[in-house]
Every structure is written in structure tokens, then in C-alpha cells.
Amino acid sequence: MRSFSILVAGVGGQGVLSAARLIAQAAANSGQRVLVGDTFGASQREGSVLSVVRLGEDVHGPLVARGEGDMLISFEPYEALRQLHLLRSGGTVLVNTAPALPVRAALEGGYPRIDEVWAKLDEKVSRLIRIDASASAGTLAQRYDSYFDVTNVVILGAACTIPAFPIEESDLLATLEQRFSERFLPMNREAFTTGKLLAQEGRFG
Amino acid sequence: MREKQKKSSVPPRLMLGNEAVAWGAIAAGVDFAAGYPGTPSSEVMQTLISTAEEYGHYAEWSVNEKIAVEAAAAAAWAGQRSMAVMKHLGLNVASDALTTLAYTGIRGGMVIFSAGDAQCHTSSNELDARVFARFANLPVLDPSDPEEAFCLARQAFEISEILELPVILNSTPRLSHSSFPLDVSRIAPPPHRDARFVEDRPRWICVAGLALKRHRWLTRRLSESIDRLGGFPVTSTVPGGNRLGVVTCGVAHGYAVEAIRKMGLEDQVSLLKIHLPYPFPEGQVRHFAESTDELLVVEELEPLVEDSTRIALQKHGDATPVRGKADGLIPLEGELDPAIVGNALARVLHLQPAAEEVVEQLPIRAPLFCPGCPHRSTYYGLRKAIEPLAEKPLVVGDIGCYTLVSSYPFEMLDTLLCMGAGAGMAHGFAQSKLDRPVLAIMGDSTFFHSGLSPLVNIGYHRSNVTILLLDNHYTAMTGFQPNPGTGLSSTGEPAQRLSIADVARALGFDHLQVADAHDSALVAEMLAKALAHAGPSMVISEGPCALQEERDRARQRERRRPLVHIDSERCIGCRVCVTRFGCSAIQWDAETAKATIDPAKCIGCGDCIVVCPADAIGRTAQ
User: Fold this and answer.
1) A4-204: which CATH number, 3.30.465.10, 3.40.640.10, 3.40.920.10, 3.50.50.60?
2) Contact status of A44 with chain B (Cβ, < 8 Å)
């Protein structure tokens, strides 16, 4: 099938849906056929969120069947594991390393330990890129005294360094410039660049 | 001219299916739109409200769906093009008006947009609006993708005018919340119509014998509908092989197309998509069946198309087998996906079904109140009030963010039925002489939506019910829409704020107290008093939605509030802040057995400070 599906996963409040929309808008701006499907249910905060960006002529619906996603971008390691069944074998995973373990799980268990998550991801994913986007975004938010979390833009910057990522960096940057007002652009530009650097370190370091 | 050139050089913006529906209505020249928010429908009205000034239509958040339908019907009776917008459950609220509107019909085109919820992502049932449409004798359109939603939304107004009937436009979460680039720069709506009422008493006064005459008119009109709509594509086909004919409706169509392509079945299977599942295009389906050995009907929820297909074939003695839900190939519940449709195709065609893979099972992440949410401290207070009581009150629920009192760490909710049912059922429990006190919770938007009548009933019968009214000033769960208690109009201009306390007192709640929602001790004290009072009582716990408050601070360029932190030296690891208060910014470090606060999530509300018995929680010095 002529299609490429990017799974964007995370937890409510992390900016997953906005990130997916930025990717999709950049793809649309560069003339690609695009359809985005969001699953967020009652996840105002802390619920699982999945947005699927589907590119190509053979896309007719917003859902990706098991094993048919081409790339998984997860804002959180547990969510990467949760959505991994949607990824095809050989698909790339970009994951933010900061875990968001539900507090109840921290108290009572029920979730695997984080090192088990990494072991499973290592075992099942041939191309796994890890970045600590949350830490960088936290530093940026403090420096700019900002109400807004830019973790998602850090992750987008990192995604651009992946060869299989079907969006040109310049298109994504242009979409960012379109999306944010003058007031928020400097922080978002910096977040994007930070993401690129983090991914390059992650791969070569 | 320059403006136009500039517009056309900008690539089309990504839009949700819901936004596409709104733009379809704008393209049709909608004059009047009214709706009540409800996931997954809300973005339709939001778009119509934000474009109202530019395109000159009227748009409002009504206080409930019935009023939205009645208001839109009035505009349509006066010859305007009108739209009423709601989630599927709103159809029930509006059904008294809708079922008679089918008898009277309309003059200007009227479209009722209903966003359903196959899979109950955010709803208490999966009601299929297509079946509601048949029940109400109203035509229904079921688009299969956002692009088609735009086209059908536009055409729905013309169809409505040709048939002189309101038309329901159905959606699902997958359609409403799918996005695609839609170019609206060249939309040229027709001129708006003036409202002019044409007297016609036998039609507009629908009662007794006159109503029976209109029912006869309606039956005749429905039977002629498909012929009258000759110019509209009520179905479309994807040609292929003759072995199997797949009849699809709504979003299921895309799943069928993808499954057929993936399995390489194009030379065995052809497709017929039903855009108008009621009144049913029998002729088109019969014609399609003639060229296939067997039919498989693929649709979500009720077997409307499937049953109608069987009836259509049987009328003409066509014995082509019709497969689908009746033989368990397609489920009656939940949403479909390409894999479910692929498996059904495999079974009909005797192919090997796809292997079931083992999926990593992680527990579901239960949603929590946002950091700073006034509901959290209110419920912390509620627990404080209830704990010392020998007789624990039954906590009767209602619909809103505040329903999350059902989940961790509060888990204090006993019942939940539908919008407004909290007060209605609390009255019933109280009057049935239940062996426990009764407390109903209700939000501000529910108060205006469907809370007033049951509160009047409580006041009138002097029921021994305590209402905990959580007033966060917005219809927050569906996207912070304003309501009569917000102090903003639908379009965001300052407006008179209706006092819930004044209204409630007038309804018979003379034992009424108002607390600051962030003062959990005061909430607890007032609730204890209210629960001890015999007769109707109300505690209004008031504090604006924290997300909205933070947004307002950011907009006004206020500095962030100093954050709150936990002194690890002082923390005794008692877990009260996580197991009883449960702010998502407070985390538990299993290694040190102490609580910590995530500075990325904390908004500095300080509600947790009073919770700590060791005084370990305090503001970060700036």
C-alpha cells in the first residue's frame, strides 16, 4: 500500500495532539495527502492518547491495523510499549525517556518496572532512539517563565533527524513559525533545535 | 483582489471532521445555529461561533439540546437555513421536539448534527443516531470521511428543503476527530435569508386531528424521498469483482476499502456505500445485489442497513444471501476497524483469517483531575465531611469533569445515569425512604442544562436531599464553553452572570451555603451542616476551572504562581497527599518512600498544603 503511518503516543496533557497536528500540517503544506485520527477519550489528564498521522494515496480511514504503523513517536516509555503492537517489524521508535508512571501504580504496582520496559523495547525494536525531552523542556519553561510545556516541540526536532521521517525539517519549521505567535516563537525554535541535538547525541553517544 | 491571491497561496489548514461539517454549513449559507457541547461534537458549534461575525450567521450555545432544536426549528419555520448541533445523547433530550418536527416539516433547510460515540469513548451509551432517525421518521446522512462530511453537510440543507423535513447528519468519534486539509478560501455562501413567518395554522399547530393529517403527509413524503432526491448521490459504488458485494455505511467504508486492498480482493469484491441509510435507497441496493453472489453489510452499531437490505431484497423475491451482524461476522457493539472487517471478509470468502498477535497489556491510565482543579479540594472536603458520619450518604452522580469522583483516589460515587439524573434520582431515593442520607452532585452547566426541573421537584416535595453543586464557571469537560453562569456570551463578550445561588434559593433551597472550592475545610464544614439538615439543602463549591484560570493568567501575561514543593526531610511517607488528595503533580518515589512534586505539572495552587499532616508541603521560595 502506498501509505506511511506515524503513531504519536503519550499521556493527556503532554501535547501529543498538537504535535501530531504540526506533523500533519507540515506534510499537507508540502503537498502530501494526509489524514489524522485522534484517540483521546476521557483523557483530560493522565489518560493514554494516540494520534495517527497517515500519509499517502491509499489511506481511507483514520485507524491503523495491528503491525501496520511505520513509525512510533512516544512521549513516554510505557505508552511506547502500549502502542508497540501497532508498529510493523522494522519500524522506528523515537521515545522520550521520562516515564509518567500513574501514581497508583507507583504505590500499588501493576505496571512493569521501567528497566523491564526498556528491555522489552530494546528486544522488539530494531531502531530505537531515546531522548530526555522532558528535562530539556522543563529547563526551557523555567528560563522563559512560560506556562507552556514544549516537550512536544523538542520531540519534533528529534523526529526530523530520523532518515525515515517523511517530513522535511524545513517544512516542519515553517509550520512551527506559522503556528506560533512572535511571543512564543523563540522558545519553540530553541526547543526544536534542542530536540535535534538530543537525537544526534542519542544516536552517536 | 490582493487578499484573495494571498489566501490562495496559503496551503489549506488541517481541519477536524467537525470543523469540516461547520464549513459545509457555512458554504450552504446557514443563517442560524444553536447547540449544546458534548464530546465528540463540540468543535462544530465552536467553529460556527468563531465564524459568526465574518459570515453573518447567528450562533449560540443553548442551555440544552432541546432548546437548540426548538430555536433552530423556529428559524427554519421562518424560512432560514438552520442547524442544531449535539452529541448523540442530546437527540434524546431533544426528541420531544424532533419527533413532532417530522410531522410539521420545515420551510428553510434544517440540519441536526449528531456526533455519536461507538465504543463509548466518552459517553454513557452507544445510541445509533441512524436508528433514532428512523424512529423519528427523519432522513439521515452518514458520511464516511471528513471530506465527505463537508460535502454532505452542505447538501443536507438542500435535501432538507427538497423533502421539507429536518435532516440528521450522523458522525462518530473517528469522523469528528479525524483531520485533513480543507481549503475554505474559495467558499462563496449564498446570501442570508430574512426570517419571515408564513401563517399556516393546520401545519404549525400540530395537535389532534391536524397531527394525524400531518402523519399521513409524512409517510407519503418518506416513501417518495429517494425519487425526489434523484439528483443527489444517495449511494456510490466502488466497482470490482462479482463474488461478493460489500454494502457499507459511514466510517466503516474506509475500513472495508483498506481491508480489501490489503487482502488483494479487488477482483472478487465490489462496494456499495450508502450515504442515506434512511429513508433506505432500496432500488440502488437491489440493483447492486443483482450482480453479486452474496452480500456482506459492514456498518457500526445497529443493523439498520443490513435489515433494510434484507427487506429490500425480500420485497422482490431476491434470495441473495445477506451476511453481517445477523451471523456474527460484524459486532453489534463498539467501533469497527480494518482488522475486524478483514476478518469478516476472510470468513465470508473462506480465506485464512489474520493471526491474532499477543498484545502487551498495560493497565488503563485512569484520568485524574488537572493540577489546581477546584473539584479535587471540594471532594477532599466531601470525604472529610462524610468520614465521621455513622450513616454514609448515597452519592448520586451526574455528567461533567466532576464525575471523576468515581475514580482514584476518591472512589466515592455510587450512581451515574445521564445528564440531570443526579438530582432526579436523589429525590427518588429520598422519597423511597432509603436507609441512608442522599447527596447529589451537580455541575454548573448541568444545573442549567437539565438540573432546574429536578431541583424544582425536590423543592416542591421538600425532599431530604443535599446537593453539592460544583460551580467552575465553564462547561469545562467539553472544552471550556461558556454557560449562563460564566459571565460571557457564546461569542466571548462580557455578559450578565446568572447567580446559581439566587436561582436555587428561589427553587426552594433556602438552606444554601457557598464555599470557596479551594477551601476544603470550609467545604467539609458546610457539607456536614447540610447533611444534618432535614429537607432540601445545597452547598455551592465555587472556583473557576484551573485550566481556564491558567490560560487567563497567561493571556494577561501574569507571572506564574510560585510552585509548591515537598520538603523530603519533613515528609514522613504517610501517603495522604497521594492516596487521599491525588494531585497528578504529586508523585510517589517508591525507592525513598516519599512524595515529590513534579515542577512541570504543579501550577502553584497550594491546595495540597493543608493536606500534609507533617507540614512538609510549602511554596517554593522565589
Assistant:
1) 3.40.920.10
2) yes
